[in-house]
Each structure stands twice: as structure tokens, then as C-alpha cells.
């Protein structure tokens, strides 16, 4: 039995100014999907093993799809390749949206001196508070070149992603952001239990490397773009601007993203020093 | 979309869409676009609901391989819409909330009220909307899901990502806070 308030709410449903989809709504969705086939087509995802379909794909069908897909990869520039890193997938092709450039400038005394302040990394956190504020254990590089980070950030809008930033200095060359010498992102893999997709311009090169015993990828060249997808279908877009060549790897339950202009070997050395 | 004149069942459309038939997915979009846009508006009244819903549909297509065959599609889709709209709500600065339609926009078929009763009804609805807009987001979400989207308790739970067993109690508390807000007279809700 509905009381007066519930009846009033039911009545209100017809009086609220709800927007209606425009006449071409469904066609627009279709156009968007067709415009980004490499990033969106379920067939790619099935091939990449991203499906949670009960029973999965039959082996013969999967083999056929793999064969067809490999042909497509060879034939097209904007093709997708799964690189098999636990908790992460990389996509080659144009970014689904242009890589945004952070435009918000920090405010307050000395704010402009904080490296990484313009990158949209989330909320700045004191290093001493980071361990208690982060949702997962944070690791720091012990490589003597670096020392402690100059700023730390937590982005609550992106599943609690943590970013550590080192200021550019003579022995730590500036990235595209002149204030940033090195950027280390850390995200909780178990929280997402899904994958991270990185759409990359065709001018990007990806090299298989290792960080200790873990497979890793050194991504260099043109700008790239991250987004995470959770099992429930929600996406976490990492729309901040990229700053440099990137080393990506997963260790245990955490995925790391290290951006530096030091080059591949130094990046791997720093990555392997994480404790 | 039809086969031999027969409208395709939802499960068939989903299966075809999973295989990459974008036209089949477009038909699904057409079936759910109204409720998706409405849901996006309930979750984030100050955002661009159509844009959020469109983005959610694109993401849902990409996520189709993880949709469990045989499970209800609507709440699965609306969960993605909800997540998209919540993300946008977090980045939206201003907060004006839901609004009433102009009186002349009432649906056809409604009996024409007298001018006096129309004014009274409009004032009552305006007070209710004002009280709703002062509620916490999770209160407004559960009320919106049940009364504006007309979702079942199970669908509400799946859409909002809350345990099924708590929908009833959460709704009850939200209605209590809405009542308190209305009782304040100026539409200012209080935390229970």
C-alpha cells in the first residue's frame, strides 16, 4: 500500500523535465562504435581473452578468430594486439578521444613549484600520509639516482590511483612537462580485476621487456592514452596528458606505470628497485 | 529489426551484438535509450544526460562479452549508465538538480485541471522537487530508481550497485529524510 508521499513521487515522475534522446541517438551510438572498431569490437575482446562469457569460446572458433585477427593485424595499422600482461591490455590505434591537455593551473603560494600539479593527478597528499591514505601498499624506487619523490597524489575518481612525481633536475631530464623529471603511477590490480586498455597512435612503438621476473612493456613515441575497465563495465579514464616514454608492468596485485625521459634501460633499473 | 516479420527477442539481439553485429546493438539502444537518458538525468541532473547515456552505450557494447547470457539486460545496462553519470557528477561543479516541466508540457490525455488546482498541484510538486534536490545523492538515487525509473527492488540494487537486501531499508530511510525535508517547509532536508 503506497502512502501519500509515494503517490506524490509517482505523480512527480510525469512532471519532471526529463530530457529525451534526440532522434538520431541510436545511430550516433552505432557510428561511434563503428568509428572505433579496434577499441570496441567484442570480437577483439573475445580474441584477447577478455570475455567472461560462461563456457568461453570453443577452441576451434577461437583458433579461427585468432588466424583472422592476425591477418587483420598484419593488414591494418590501427589493429589491436593483446600483450598478455596480467591485468593490463594494450591497444594499438588512434585514441578513442584526443588526449586531453590539463589546463587547470594550481593556485596558492608556491603551487606552481609543485611538480605534476598541472597533470590532473588527483589530490595532493603528503608523503608521510600516503601509506594511510592509499587503498593498497605503495612501493618506492630505491635507486640512488632518485631519492624520495617531490610530490604524491591520489586520484579518487580513478579507483584511488597513486602518482609519485620527481622534479626535473640536471640528472633527471625533464619530460614534456618541464617541471616533471619522472612520474610513477601505481594502481590496484585486484580492485579492478579487469584490464587496462591503452590506445596508442600508430607512431607509438612497444617493446617487450622484463622488470625482474615480470613481463613489461616499454612504450615510446607518440602520445598514448589509458583507460581502465572494471568487470562491471565501468571505465576509469586516465585523461591526464602523458609526459614521456612509459614502462608498464604488473607485479602481484599492482600495476605500475613509469614515465621518464631517461630511456628504457634506466627505466627498467628504476622499476626493479621498487621496494 | 525483424526476421521474417518477427521482432527479434532481446536475447537474440544481445547474442548478435556480442558477435559484432552493430545493427543488432543499435536496436537494443533504441529499446533502452529513453530509460538510459532518464537514468543518467536522475543520477546527475546537472550533467548532459544524453551524452552520458551515449557514452554508456558505447562502453556497454565493449563490455558485452562479459554480460552473462540469460541475465536481465536492463539493469546491467543501467549500471553502466549509472557509473558513467556518477563519474560526471563528481566533476560537475554546480548543483541545481531536477526541475519540473512547464505546465503546458503535461502529457496529452491528462484531464485539464482548474487554474486553482493546477497552481496548487504545481506548488506541491515544486516543494517535493526542492526537497528531493536537497537530499544526499544516494537517497535521491534510490528514490529516482524506484519512482522515476520504476525499477523493481532487484533492478534497483543491480543498477545502483547496492546489495539487494538493503534496497528496501535504504529507500525507507531516504523517504524518511524526504518527509523531514518537506516538513521543514522550505524544503531543507535533514539528516536522519
Structure in words:
The complex is a heterodimer of chains A (275) and B (192). Chain A is an alpha+beta fold and 275 residues long. Chain A is built from eight helices and twelve strands. In chain A, the strands form two sheets. Chain A has an eight-stranded antiparallel β-sheet. In chain A, α4 (42-48) packs across α5 (59-75). Mean pLDDT of chain A is 69; it is low at 37-111, 190-202 and 229-234. Chain B is elongated and about 55 Å long. Chain B has helices at residues 10-18, 22-43, 49-63, 73-91, 115-133, 137-148, 153-160, 167-183, and strands spanning 2-3, 6-7. Chain B has 192 residues and is mainly α. Chain B has eight helices and two strands, in the order ββαααααααα. The model of chain B is unreliable at 1-5 and 187-192 (pLDDT under 50). In chain B, α2 (22-43) crosses α6. A two-stranded antiparallel ribbon of chain B has the order 1-2. Chains A and B meet through α1, α2 and α4 of A and α2, α3, α4, α5 and α6 of B.
Short description:
Chain A is of the alpha+beta class and 275 residues long. Chain A is 25% helix and 27% strand. In chain A, strands 2-3-4-5-12-11-8-7 form an eight-stranded antiparallel β-sheet. A four-stranded mixed β-sheet of chain A has the order 1-6-9-10, with no helix packed on it.
Amino acid at each position: 500500500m503506497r502512502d501519500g508521499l509515494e503517490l506524490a513521487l509517482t505523480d512527480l515522475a510525469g512532471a519532471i523535465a526529463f530530457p529525451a534522446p534526440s532522434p538520431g541517438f541510436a545511430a550516433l551510438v552505432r557510428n561511434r562504435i563503428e568509428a572505433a572498431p579496434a577499441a570496441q569490437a567484442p570480437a577483439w575482446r573475445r580474441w584477447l581473452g577478455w570475455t567472461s562469457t560462461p563456457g568461453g569460446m570453443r577452441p576451434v572458433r577461437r583458433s579461427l578468430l585468432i588466424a583472422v585477427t592476425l591477418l587483420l593485424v598484419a593488414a591494418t595499422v590501427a589493429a589491436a594486439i593483446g600483450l598478455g600482461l596480467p591485468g593490463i591490455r594494450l591497444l594499438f590505434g588512434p585514441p578513442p578521444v584526443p588526449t586531453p591537455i590539463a589546463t587547470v593551473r594550481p593556485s596558492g603560494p608556491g603551487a606552481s613549484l609543485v611538480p605534476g600539479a598541472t597533470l590532473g593527478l588527483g589530490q595532493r597528499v603528503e608523503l608521510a600520509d600516503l601509506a594511510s591514505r592509499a587503498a593498497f601498499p605503495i612501493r618506492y624506487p630505491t635507486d640512488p639516482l632518485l631519492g624520495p619523490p617531490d610530490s604524491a597524489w591520489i586520484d579518487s575518481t580513478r579507483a584511488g590511483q597513486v602518482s609519485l612525481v620527481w622534479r626535473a633536475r640536471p640528472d633527471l631530464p625533464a619530460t614534456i612537462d618541464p617541471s616533471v623529471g619522472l612520474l610513477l603511477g601505481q594502481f590496484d590490480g585486484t580492485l579492478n580485476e579487469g584490464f587496462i586498455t591503452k590506445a596508442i597512435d600508430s607512431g607509438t612503438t612497444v617493446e617487450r621487456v622484463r622488470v625482474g621476473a615480470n613481463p613489461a612493456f616499454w612504450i615510446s613515441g607518440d602520445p598514448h592514452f589509458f583507460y581502465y575497465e572494471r568487470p562491471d563495465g565501468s571505465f576509469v579514464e586516465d585523461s591526464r596528458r602523458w609526459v614521456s616514454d612509459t614502462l608498464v608492468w604488473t607485479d602481484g596485485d599492482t600495476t605500475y606505470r613509469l614515465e621518464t625521459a631517461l630511456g628504457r634501460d634506466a627505466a627498467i633499473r628504476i622499476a626493479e628497485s621498487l621496494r | 529489426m525483424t526476421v521474417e516479420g518477427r521482432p527479434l527477442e532481446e536475447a537474440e539481439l544481445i547474442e548478435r551484438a556480442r558477435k559484432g553485429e552493430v545493427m543488432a546493438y543499435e536496436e537494443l539502444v533504441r529499446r533502452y535509450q529513453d530509460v538510459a537518458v532518464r537514468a543518467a538525468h536522475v543520477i546527475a541532473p546537472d550533467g548532459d544526460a544524453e551524452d552520458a547515456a551515449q557514452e554508456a552505450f558505447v562502453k556497454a557494447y565493449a563490455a558485452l562479452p562479459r554480460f552473462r547470457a540469460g541475465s536481465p539486460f536492463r539493469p546491467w545496462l543501467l549500471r553502466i549508465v549509472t557509473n558513467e553519470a556518477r563519474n560526471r557528477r563528481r566533476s560537475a561543479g554546480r548543483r541545481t538538480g531536477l526541475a519540473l516541466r512547464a505546465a503546458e508540457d503535461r502529457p496529452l490525455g491528462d484531464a485539464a485541471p482548474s487554474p486553482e488546482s493546477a497552481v496548487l498541484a504545481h506548488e506541491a510538486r515544486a516543494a517535493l522537487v526542492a526537497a528531493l534536490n536537497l537530499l544526499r545523492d544516494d537517497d535521491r538515487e534510490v528514490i529516482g530508481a524506484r519512482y522515476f525509473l520504476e525499477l523493481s527492488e532487484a533492478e534497483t540494487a543491480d543498477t545502483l550497485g547496492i546489495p539487494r537486501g538493503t534496497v528496501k531499508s535504504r529507500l525507507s530511510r531516504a523517504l524518511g529524510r524526504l518527509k523531514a525535508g518537506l516538513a521543514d517547509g522550505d524544503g531543507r532536508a535533514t539528516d536522519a
